[in-house]
Amino acid sequence: MAQDSIQRFLFQDHAVRGQVLQLHQAWQAMLQDRHYPTNLQQLFGELTAFAVLLANGMKYEGRLTLQVQGKGPVNLLVVDIDDALQLRGVAKTQAPLTDLTGAQALLGDGQILVTLENRQTDHFYQSYVGRESDDLVQDLQGFLTQSEQLESRLFIAVSDTTIGALYLQKMPETDGHDADAWDRVSHLAATVKPEELLNLDSATLLTRLYHEEQVELFPARLPLYHCPGNREQVATMIKALGETEARAILAEQGEIVVHNDMCNRYERFNADDLDQLFKPA
C-alpha cells in the first residue's frame, strides 16, 4: 500500500531545494462521507497540499490554518495542520457547482487567509494569498515566491484517492553555482505529468525527471489525518443551556445532536446522557 509522505530534496550542485508530497490515507480520510464533487475536490486538494508543504517548514511548535471565505458557490474552505503534520479540513458550498471549473467561478471574490500560530511565543501571524488568476496553484506559487523572496515552482495533482505535489525553490546562491541551473531544473519540472505526481514515489519521480542530476533526498515525514472528538466540549455547551432547555430539546427531538463540521462527526446525547450531565453533585 502506498504511504503518505513528504520529503525534502536538494540539488547538490545547484543550490536548488524542494519537496515531494503524496497523500493517500490522509486525503481519503478527509474526503470520507463528504461526497464532494470533482471540481470541489480539486480546489480542496490543492489547498491541502499547500498547507502540508508550508507546515513542513515550521521550525517551532504551532499550527497553520488556511481559510477561504467568499461569495462564490464555494463559500468556505479550511485546512488546518500542526507542526507534527496532523491535518484536517472542510469545504462548504452555498450553491450547486454543476460543471463550474476554475478558482474564479468557484470561489468568486474569496480571499485566502494564512494564519500561523506560534505556541512557544503565543503569537499569531496572518497574511493573504493574492488572487490574481483563475488557477489556484499559480496564486499559491506566487505567494511562495513573494513571502520567501525566493523564486518558486509548484505543481499539484489531485484525484479522489491521492494528492501529489512537487515544489521547487531557488536559493540565493543558486546562480553562483550555475547560472542556467534554475531554468533547467524548472523546465524539467514543468514536464511532470499528473499521473506521475499521483503514482510515483519520491525517489522514482525525481530520478525520472532528473536522471542526470545529483539529487540528495532527505528522510520522509508522515502527514496524518487527525480530528479528535470534542464530546466533552459539547457536553459543556449543553450544561450551559441549563437542564430545563436541554430536556425540552430532548423531548422535542428525541436526542440532542451536534454536528462537528470540521471532523464530519455527530455527537449524540440521549436521556441517560442528560441524567449524567445534570446529576446532583
UniProtKB/TrEMBL annotation:
Keyword Transcription: no
MF terms (GO), sorted A to Z: protein folding chaperone; unfolded protein binding
Family matches, as CDD domains: Hsp33
Matching SUPFAM superfamilies: Hsp33 domain (SSF64397), HSP33 redox switch-like (SSF118352)
GO cellular component: cytoplasm
Pfam family, one: HSP33
Name of this protein: Molecular chaperone Hsp33
Organism: Thiomicrospira aerophila AL3
